[in-house]
Amino acid sequence: TYGWVRELEKKFSGKHVIVVGQRRILPKPSRKTRNQKQMRPRSRTLTAVHDAILEDLCFPSEIVGKSIRVKLDGSRLIKIVLEKAQQTNVEHKLDTFANVYKKLTGKDTHFTFEI
Q1: Contact, 110 vs 80, CB < 8 A?
Q2: What's the whole-model pTM score?
Q3: What DSSP string describes 30-72?
Q4: What pLDDT, on a 0 to 100 scale, did the predictor assign at position 61?
Q5: CA–CA gap between residue 44 and residue 42 (Å, rounded)
Q6: What span, in angstroms and rounded, lies between the C-alpha atoms of 82 and 106?
Q7: What is the tens place of the pLDDT at every residue in 70-110?
Q8: Residue 53 belongs to a domain with what CATH number?
Q9: Burial of residue 90 (number of CB atoms within 10 Å: 0-12, 13-18, 19+)
Q10: Measured in Å, how far apart are the chain's first and last C-alpha atoms?
């Protein structure tokens, strides 16, 4: 499935092409909505959707590590470690990954490769 992404990148003269699936976030059940008919599935939680977006962004590379760094001023930086096998294919896109993830989720990220 990665082949057609490369074809699109060639067609658009070297621009980065990223495919992200459409997902839905359901609100957390409050006290008023406690007697709902159905439970909220895990795949519809905010965390699950953000993790899935991250997986889609990094394709074809796999995420092998993730940590959250909280700075003294309270801001958070998510450090994501990608597998080394796909470094040549993905290395030039790391800034794009960070910017797209920031736009979609509002979270700051830093991508690196495993040692």
Answers
A1: yes
A2: 0.88
A3: -STTTT-SSPPPGGGSHHHHHHHHHHHHHTTSPEEEEEEEE-T
A4: 92
A5: 5
A6: 21
A7: 999 999 999 999 999 989 989 999 999 999 999 999 999 99
A8: 3.30.300
A9: buried
A10: 27
Selection from 24, 61, 17, 55 nearest residue 40 by Cα: 24
99: containing domain: 1-26+42-113
* pLDDT single digits (tens) 4-48: 888 888 899 879 999 999 999 999 888 777 666 778 899 999 999
Which neighbouring-strand residues pair with 77? 69
Q: Which residue has the tokens 């519809």?
A: 44
Q: What whole-number distance in Å separates Cα of residue 8 and Cα of residue 17?
A: 7
3-class DSSP state for residue 3?
helix
- The answer to whether residue 32 sits within a structural domain is no
Q: Is residue 97 part of a domain?
A: yes
